[in-house]
Amino acid sequence: MVLDTLARRAGLSLGVAGAALALSMPALAQAPAPSTQELLDQIRILQKRIEQLEAAEKRRQGADAQTRAAARQPAAAPPPARTAAVAPATAPAVPPPAEPASAPVTTAPDPAPQAAARESDKPNGTFMLGAAKLTLGGYIDLTGYYRSRNENRGTGTGYNTIPFYGPTPQGNSGEYGMSAQQTRLALRLDVPVGVESRLTAYGEMDFNNGSGGANSVQSNSYTPRLRQVFGQYQDESWQAYLLAGQAWTLATPFRKGLDPFGTWQPPTIDHNYMVGYNYLRVPMVRAVKGFGNFWMGIEANTPQTVFGGTATVPAGQTVYTGYPGNSGLNPQAVYSVNVAPDIVAKVALDTKYGHVDAFGVARWFRDQVSFGTTSVNHDAFGGGFGVSAFIPAGKWADLMGSFVYGSGIGRYGAAGLPDVTFTPNGGLTTLPQGMGTVGAVAHIVPSVLDLYGFYGWNWVGSSYYPGGGYGNPGFNNTGCFNPNAGGANCAGNTRMLSEVTVGLNWNFLRGRFGTLRAGLQYGNILRTAYYGTGGTPSAVENLFMFNFRYIPFE
User: Fold this and answer.
1) Least C-beta-crowded within 10 Å: which of 81, 144, 282, 353?
2) Distances, alpha carbon 337 to alpha carbons 249, 367, 373, 430, 441, in Å
3) CB neighbours (10 Å) of residue 268?
4) Cα–Cα distance measured from residue 415 to residue 402, given in angstroms and rounded to the nearest whole number
């Protein structure tokens, strides 16, 4: 009886499926031939429907088995007859053996709904909006800092502006402060648009920006700062993506492929990272193609020029390197005259030992010289190359290093050294430059306590003519040694910057509601200028930083 019932139910399900298929055949015969992708999509839909039908049938079988098992429980046996000659007519028959399905049957839940439930858990920070996945990110941060020389800055060190002993008393005092400006907010949305493709939108900001009314006296009023905001289309079947918006440039060191979420930075508290580290976060368009573990990418990003040195031109001539920002830009900043985007191309390789990559950058520069009733544009070309590596040493350490060399690449370094200087006619020439970082992060207690140590350096060459240029030995440096020089007579063109930094990050409390992290950092920074009249200025700055950070979605 049971087998007949199951057979009839299975036959009914197969019959319904067969009838539906037979009825659909004429329509399919008359319809235009579907594409291969459409056939694959239809097959996946049919497979999912069959799995749902099988799961429903298993649940029905389990319920029936439980009902039969309860019905087969034997009644209490009557007392045995006192005569052994004849077996009692009421003796129960031997019940049939219990079927294997007599135990309750539990059907495994569909993995997709279960994954969605985990992702929508609030401590995870991920929510499903239909097929789209929304992920929250960021943290609340408090950073304290002490510098042995008063830069009059926040939590990001201005390496190229570390004050000498003169020409004002600024370099003869330390500075201490605390700031919550590194607090970060982030939002990511992933939307599938095909079987193997998706759209990603990402935005990230902090508060490391000071508006005209910002101060540290009352409520601070520091304003949001745009770090990243971009849209990305990714096709996994092509192993490629297109990106447009503001993101880490390809010139930034990576630790995985050319994934825009896979860059690496020294884990310092200083939000300007350290001397020798190369990076930009600027508006761009980018295309990336992968070939297994090998990747190629190219981008065009928005340009800006860092000028250095002194321009001396004949009387009646004026050199213009840029103009104050108008509507939509910062009126307190000077924006350079730009004629073409920076072009960055990069290749990367992921191996079992780690990640390595190499890039090249091409740049164009312009200034203007006006005289009489006319003006002349002067252009220059520069560029460089760089390499970086990220090598995990098991679960106990990560090794990191980068090196960049070129002419006119100062903008790409955290130190902010100049790209170009001036020629006798007021035109431009690029400055040779090299920078690099090397170090390691030791996971003393994995996922709990990290110790790190890094060394970084940044050197820039000189180019000068009588009375002008950069690094000119005839420049006056006498005021660099005199805190009472009234802010004058200190050319102080930087020749070399170096930094040794060590620190720790401790996740001292971690649970389903996030992570509480504390950090300490010490840095020793040396700034040395080119020789000039009066000598060679230098300044050593000792940097101490600490922070407390609550990361709710980690």
Assistant:
1) 353
2) 21, 7, 20, 15, 41
3) 23
4) 15
pLDDT in tens, 382-424: 999 999 999 999 999 999 999 999 999 999 999 999 999 999 9
b/e burial code for range 78-93 (CB count within 10 A of at least 16 → b)? eeeeeeeeeeeeeeee
Residue 480: alpha-carbon gap to chain centroid: 40
Contact between 441 and 400 (Cβ < 8 Å): yes
Residue 313 in this model has a pLDDT that exceeds 60: yes
What contacts 238, CB < 8 A, 6 or more positions away?
Answer: 289
User: Which SS3 state, helix, strand or coil, does residue 5 take?
Assistant: helix
Query: Quick check: 511 and 192 in contact, CB under 8 A?
Result: no
Phi then psi for residue 61, to 5 deg, are -60, -40
Average pLDDT, whole number, for the chain? 85
- Asked whether the beta carbons of 123 and 512 are under 8 A apart, the reply is yes
Phi/psi for 431 (5° steps) reads -105, 130
Residue 381 banded pLDDT, cuts 50, 70, 90: very high
Confidence of residue 117 (pLDDT cuts 50, 70, 90): very low
Phi and psi torsions of 37, nearest 5°: -65, -40
Helix axes 2-30, 36-71, angle to 10 degrees: 170
Q: Inform me whether the pLDDT recorded for 49 exceeds 50.
A: yes
**pTM exceeding 0.85:** no
DSSP H/E element including 17 = helix 2-30
pLDDT band at 26 (very low <50, low <70, confident <90, very high): very low
For 495, the 3-state DSSP assignment is strand
Tell me if residue 220 falls in helix, strand or coil: coil
> Which has more pLDDT, 543 or 44?
543
Longest Cα pair distance anywhere in the chain, in angstroms? 141
Cα–Cα distance for residue pair 178/347, rounded to 1 Å = 41
Range of 95-104, 123-132, 304-313 with top mean pLDDT: 304-313
CA distances to 167, 200, 235, 245 from 238, rounded to whole Å, are: 59, 16, 6, 22
DSSP summary character for residue 99: P
* Cα three-residue angle 489-312-477, rounded to 5 degrees: 20
d(CA 407, CA 387): 16
**Can you spell out the DSSP letters for 348-367?**
EEEETTEEEEEEEEEEEEEE
Burial class (CB in 10 A: 0-12, 13-18, 19+), 237: exposed
Q: DSSP labels for 437-451?
A: EEEEEEEEETTTEEE
User: Which residue shows structure tokens 């009387």?
Assistant: 315
Q: Is 156 within 8 Å of 521 (Cβ atoms)?
A: no
